[in-house]
Write a structure and sequence with these properties.
The chain has 319 residues and is α+β, with helices and mostly antiparallel strands. Helix content is 36%, strand content 11%.
Length: 319
């Protein structure tokens, strides 16, 4: 009788076949980081991200988002870390990762149903549902939580997206990732220009450049505006200095959906800022259709553009 791999092995092989770079299976239940999450929210570190506080009880227990689900297939998709620094964080230069990831996860869901010969209740999540994704990914064996709060994998670093397919299907779980390979290194904490880390593993989002340029809906605090420097959307600094990324970050392939769009590729911060300020509603929609940068909305990107131009003018670095 020919050898037939276990269903769990076939599922992960199919995930890799669909283009994911990491795949693991996690059991659902109370998140290991539930208490830390509650404390983080209570301290006000979420800033204006009130959606994190809403349904917090669901986030704490991964059995609750999808009734009947018992397992999650957790995946990661690399978005490249060898590309030069720029005014837009690497993850946001190309197509919207939500769309790319969800398409692949839904294809995986359909394949699983066909493989078991019946409908399997479930749902895919990519950064939009009440799920503590990094906690679930660590539980699935995909990596450890670094001091910069990013999930780090010892083979590919941290430049990757996380997605999860919740299933009403009993699957054998992978061993959780229990090691912490950060050691005594504090490069990420030391490099943060806004001092957003209150301590290792704790980020005050209100001081984080990614929060200030994406999630914040009002004006930036005066004392933080100069520290944003020429960063127009997001920030990669705490990843750029990480030794694991120095060694293992990958370059994008030519056909990657995350390759920088022509409106962004190689463009200096000042030029991109001026382009944004010159856009009307129609040109804004055309430029950022299918881009994660639309998250900040036109008003947010215009605010960021003004801050960047103010900073570049003050430091004579406009180019």
């Amino acid at each position: 009788m020919p050898y037939v791999p276990r269903l769990e092995h076939r599922i992960k092989a199919q995930a890799y076949g669909l283009g994911f770079d990491l795949a693991g299976i996690a059991p659902l239940g109370i998140a290991d980081s539930a208490e830390a999450f509650d404390d983080w929210v209570a301290r006000g570190y979420a800033g204006d991200m009130q959606y994190l506080e809403r349904r917090a009880d669901v986030r704490r227990d991964s059995r609750r988002p999808v009734p009947g689900a018992t397992s999650a297939v957790v995946v990661a998709l690399d978005y490249g870390g060898r590309e030069p620094s720029g005014p837009v964080a690497r993850y946001a230069r190309g197509d919207d990762y939500h769309d790319v990831m969800l398409d692949k996860l839904r294809a995986l869901h359909a394949w699983i149903a066909a493989e078991v010969g019946r409908d399997v209740s479930g749902k895919a999540y990519v950064d939009t549902g009440p799920v503590l994704e990094r906690d679930l990914a660590r539980r699935a064996g995909l990596g450890w939580l670094g001091k910069n709060t990013m999930l780090i994998n010892p083979r590919i670093g941290s430049y990757f997206f996380i997605g999860a397919l919740f299933l009403a299907l009993d699957l054998a779980a992978d061993a959780p990732f229990t090691a912490d390979h950060c050691g005594r290194c504090t490069r990420c904490l030391d490099a943060c220009p806004t001092r957003a880390f209150t301590q290792a593993h704790v980020l005050d989002a209100r001081r984080c450049i990614s929060y200030l340029t994406i999630e914040l809906r009002g004006e930036m605090p005066d004392e933080l505006r100069p520290l944003v420097d020429d960063l127009l959307y997001g920030c990669d600094i705490c990843q750029e200095v990480c030794p694991w990324n120095h060694k293992f970050a990958r370059a994008l392939t030519d056909d990657s959906p995350f390759a920088a769009r022509s409106a962004i590729a190689g463009k200096p911060a000042a030029a991109l800022a001026r382009d944004i300020l010159a856009m009307d509603d129609a040109s804004f929609r055309d430029t950022f259709r299918g881009s994660p940068m639309k998250r900040a909305k036109r008003q947010g990107l215009e605010r960021n553009a003004r801050v960047v131009l103010e900073n570049l003018g003050a430091t004579s670095r406009e180019n």
